[in-house]
Design a protein that fits this description.
210 residues; SH3 type barrels; five-stranded antiparallel beta sheet; two-stranded parallel ribbon
């Protein structure tokens, strides 16, 4: 019985097994219809974007696309980690926001840049001010459609005299317990408001004379 089985296996024609198709048979036409021409599959293009090193090319492409869509005013440069235009913690800002999607009314909030949370197009920052001897904080999204304007009152440029100090941190929560620094910032806000009020009054007088 064993010899018969061996002889039967030897008598089978040589060729590939049923589980694997040879390249010769794959290159031939359709076996059930001679008029059908089977074309080889076209290779899928693989640009460099699909084979990045550690995935960084994909991340950069996505961030660039989202930034072109949501940050057309270039406000993210003000809150970047590095750059000549970036704002440092301790700077005094004035932010104007719309109260609703209709964009009819707006509100103004001024304060010291207390924290920056960098998350691409989801970047946000926090301002702190003292209103009627009570600390008030507000957070804003940089790419929010309700953000109307960001005005820089004073920059934190270093540790020189008559300038606001560069606090050299991404978050300065200790300002809540430092009233001396907050008084300095409040003085800067008052002087800026006085300068703006004087300029508007001068313009009003000029138009009245005409």
């Amino acid at each position: 019985m064993l010899r018969r089985a061996v002889d039967m296996l030897r008598a089978l024609p040589a060729g590939p097994s049923r589980g694997f198709a040879s390249s010769a048979r794959a290159s031939e036409g359709y076996p059930f219809n001679a008029g059908v021409v089977v074309k080889p599959p076209t290779p899928i293009p693989t640009p460099s974007l699909l084979k990045p090193k550690n995935g960084w090319s994909v991340v950069e492409h996505v961030n660039k696309t989202l930034r072109e869509q949501y940050d057309q005013r270039g406000l993210l440069d003000l809150f970047a980690r590095r750059g000549p235009q970036r704002l440092k913690t301790g700077s005094v800002l004035s932010v104007t926001t719309w109260t609703g999607p209709e964009k009819k009314n707006s509100t103004l909030f001024s304060g010291v840049l207390m924290a920056v949370r960098r998350r691409g197009v989801d970047t946000s920052f926090t301002l702190r001010n003292v209103v009627q001897q009570t600390g008030a904080e507000m957070s804003f999204k940089v790419c929010s459609p309700l953000l109307k304007e960001i005005k820089i009152i004073r920059r934190a440029e270093g540790r020189k005299k008559d300038t606001i100090r560069d606090l050299r941190r991404a978050r300065v929560n200790y300002l809540r317990d430092r009233p001396d620094i907050m008084h300095q910032i409040a003085a800067a806000l008052k002087s800026h408001a006085a300068q703006e009020g004087g300029g508007k009054a001068a313009k009003g007088k000029g138009t009245g004379r005409k």
